[in-house]
Amino acid sequence: MVKKITAVFFAALISAAFTACGASREYSSDFFAMDTYMSVKTCGTDATGAAEDEARRLETLFSVTDAESEIGRLNANGRVDASDETVELIEKALEISGITDGALDITVYPAVRAWGFTTGEYSVPSPEKIEELRDLIGFTNVKTDGNTVSVPDGYMVDLGAVAKGYLGDRVRDILKNEGVTSAIADLGGSIVTVGGKPDGSPWRVAIRDPNGDGSFGVIEVKDKCVVTSGGYERYFTDEDGVKRWHIIDPATAEPADAGLLSATVIGEDGALCDGLSTALFVMGAEKAEAMWRKEGGFEMILVTITGDVLVTDGIKDSFSLSEGSPYELKVIG
Ligand code: ADP
Ligand code: MG
Hints:
CATH topology: T-fold
Largest sheet: 9 strands, mixed
Oligomer: single chain
Bound molecules: adenosine-5'-diphosphate, magnesium ion
CATH architecture: Roll
Shape: globular
């Protein structure tokens, strides 16, 4: 008996085996890089190895836990002569910080570390410590001069909020150069698609339910990235029973607490989508909506703690809420 399996990709969740490419030959590779599981599927042409190689290459530039990476050396010495690519991604992140009013801030790393999110040894820092951490956060203190990047004493840079989206951009370009016209990659919550499926229909990307293991809906896309940031990825529960997650509000040096459980951004530019998804999670629904109106160029799906799924007008026809979903769908128009 042949079971019909719907090809659905999970944002922020590695998906089980399925037939992504229909009648076309499917090439698939699953690997661990940048501290997360990744999965690449190409239809018709095998180029999955090149995607994996790229993830490993970028890791040697951006890894914050590798003392030898460019970011590792910047954090150890306060300055580094970096590659064009690292400088460009830092400058792009700084620009996103500007448009998000500092909600994205690549200098939150001392706080990420103090809360234990790098090691898994979680703890709530003392109020004095949090005060100190706040003084070590401020993206305007990251300076670039040609290829030299520098930060003040005690500052540390972490590109974790944009790196996987940037990898998505690179993977898409590499696959296209290899002649791939149909592919989908899940780069640890950062999904990138090349074209649609071989039969011309769009890719179906399921968005992880922040309150459970499954998904709450599906977005159909072609040639787009879909990036989700959520509180469910890396968190612990503190003494008061409050969930403390790895996305930090740069203004408080504490886990963001703006009423969202996840923020998904859909657009063309992966690094931007990734940076925005983190920033929207920090900003909350109201500010996110205001920014969507002002800046444009992206669409979003926000899940609120009160059980709403807020979807922007540009994707309302390509998004569908799962049948029997406990969430209420509202369109931001
Ligand atoms: P993930 O990489 O876990 O899928 P994100 O793209 O949202 O999720 O990035 C979160 C990572 O970025 C955290 O692990 C942390 O290292 C860093 N980070 C946390 N808060 C911020 C922030 N406000 N701005 C920039 N980087 C952040
Ligand atoms: Mg991000």
